[in-house]
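[recover] target loaded
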């Protein structure tokens, strides 16, 4: 049988080392030797001896998710084998977190990550519930995390003399060491007269980076699991 479908860029090759790699722009391949974490419902194929189990967020995580909608509906994947992950054909990017780093990420942008990474759902400093319930997941430790994004993300450096303001519906994540606060960009009068609608942004200050996606929040489909 002959077809462009069978070109090398589409074929899944045998694994040569454990962990995650990009299968293509829209999916991640993970060679499991032990265990890893992934977004529930994101597994699109696997081979080998693997088990998929729901992972509880704990009472604190469940309470925060109930209050804000932010959370990480995760599954644990255990065993020996290979699994492929994707979510609604969104673009995939792999970030390696080194010891001493801390990355804060919106839960909707997490696809899968190494079990060596720890995460905690935290309130975004300076925002709280008045900011529409801004809670993100903070990752620490050492390992890789795969992020998903609608379109190609924009990574903006943040420096002490050049703070960055981002739309809270477009932000993907940022360096945890950055200082965050809410910023109002227009008066109530300008909003009534017909402003941009971007009345409140998240302001980030310090040294680091922020990742934003080229679209605002859209309704998320419920996972199958």
């Amino acid at each position: 049988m002959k077809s462009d479908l069978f070109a090398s860029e589409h074929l899944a090759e045998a694994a040569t080392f454990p962990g995650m790699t990009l299968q293509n722009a829209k999916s991640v391949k993970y060679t499991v030797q032990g265990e890893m974490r992934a977004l529930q419902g994101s597994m699109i194929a696997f081979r080998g001896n693997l088990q998929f189990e729901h992972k509880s967020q704990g009472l604190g995580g469940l309470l925060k998710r109930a209050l804000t909608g932010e959370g990480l509906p995760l599954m644990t994947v255990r065993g020996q084998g290979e699994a492929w992950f994707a979510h609604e054909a969104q673009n995939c990017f792999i970030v390696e977190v080194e010891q001493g780093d801390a990355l804060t990420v919106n839960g909707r942008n997490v696809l899968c990550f190494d079990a060596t990474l720890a995460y905690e759902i935290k309130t975004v400093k300076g925002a709280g519930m008045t900011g529409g319930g801004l809670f993100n997941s903070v990752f620490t430790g050492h390992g890789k995390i795969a992020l998903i994004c609608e379109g190609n993300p924009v990574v903006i450096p943040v420096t002490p003399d050049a703070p960055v303001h981002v739309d809270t519906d477009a932000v993907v994540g940022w360096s945890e060491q950055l200082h965050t606060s809410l910023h109002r960009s227009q008066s109530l009068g300008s909003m009534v007269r017909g402003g941009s609608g971007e009345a409140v942004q998240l302001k980030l200050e310090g040294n680091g980076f922020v990742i934003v996606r080229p679209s605002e929040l859209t309704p998320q489909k419920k996972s199958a699991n």
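[recover] notes: The CA atoms of residues 43 and 85 lie 4 Å apart.
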